[in-house]
Amino acid sequence: MRFMRHLGNVLWHRASLRVDQACSPIAINARNYSTNIAAPSDADIDSARKYCVNQLKHGDYEAYLIRHFLPPPAQDAYDALRTLNLELSRMPEAVSNPTLGRMRMQFWRDAISNTFDGRPPREPISVLLHRSITKLKERAGPGSVGSLKFWLLRFLSTREQHLDNRPFANLNALEEYAENTYATLMYLTLASIPIQSVHMDHLSSHIGKACGIVAILRSIPVLTMPPRPVENPSGSLVGSSRPPALLLPLDVMAKVGLKEEDVFRQGPHAEGLQDAVYQVATRANDHLITVREMLKNLQSGQGPGHNYEHQHEAEHVHTSPAQDTQDIAVEIRRGFGVLLEAITAHSYLKSLEGSNFDPWRVKRSWRLPWSLWKAAKRRSAALAREPGMTLDWGL
Q1: CA–CA separation, 87 and 180 (whole Å)
Q2: Helix H or strand E encompassing 388
Q3: How many whole angstroms separate alpha carbon 56 and alpha carbon 35?
Q4: Of 83, 69, 61, nearest to 363 (Cα)?
Q5: What is the CATH number of the domain that holds 170?
Q6: At residue 9, does pLDDT exceed 80?
Q7: Is residue 394 part of a domain?
Q8: Domain limits for position 135
Q9: 135, part of any domain
Q10: C-alpha distances in angstroms, 51 versus 28, 250, 337?
Q11: What InterPro entries would the database entry show (predicted)?
Q12: CA separation for the pair 389, 343 (Å, rounded)
């Protein structure tokens, strides 16, 4: 209950709405961009950790909650990765033209390469990521970090492709984006534990796609409104040149007769908007339904029920697939905290449905901390009864 009181207190903080494109940039002092030859000190690491956790606390509330349920060895990696995601999602607001955006993306690409080479820049995300890489090598050997760099560079590349807030051609393109961003963040977290499980990657793929779609739905009230001024590193407010944007898939919009200009002028009253949001939200919910069915199948000793489409792609390195129900249970138990992302997506979709698929009316659910805590308690209770399978989250 002490933990629940702590989570309850968090609700009093005025955290910004978590959206795929958020409202203001993370201020990183330009003098910290230089590459550090010496390894970060304990004080540097502690300062970087505090910075990243604070950014999540006020900019990505769900990630701030979930980090408490991850194994301690993976928390630093998760904090760094989710703070980087927050930084990149804010980038369209922070830069005044595409050239500056590409320059900033190149900084992050160089920073990641230097970090994996043992020369992290003096900025919090790189320092904390370097710490997690170092510790992972100590736990699992030098070869354990190869996939991390691959996933991170793919994540950056996808983010860079969407800096201009281009709409998605269709739902499949939106799912591909979600796979290469939010599912990839989950692969990265699993690799940092480390877990090399085809079942966990498969579950993460579906959950990540749901989370990526939810992020696009969250962005609607923000991106369709005129951008507000942002604070530059000197502390002054500057206007943003970002035009309003609507990222819903074009095929869905055409099907329901929704026009971008109507949303920009009329907001939630635009004809066809709720129908389009409903169709996109349904796809996200379909992925969560698939996750529930997979968990039930695995619990009963069957296979997941369908093939994992990304199983044979580069860097999806798996140990021999677990066949025994108890072995599968161990994999899922170790990665339980990572899979809790499903609860955050489910919470938003449930609130969206209660708001008649009007994204402007969706409020942060006070039940989310309780839902996460309850899932953890249910897992603990199931372990006490039977040390094997613990798959019922109450989704």
Answers
A1: 17
A2: none
A3: 25
A4: 61
A5: 1.10.600.10
A6: no
A7: no
A8: 16-25+40-231+241-385
A9: yes
A10: 11, 38, 22
A11: Isoprenoid_synthase_dom_sf (IPR008949), Squ/phyt_synthse (IPR002060)
A12: 19
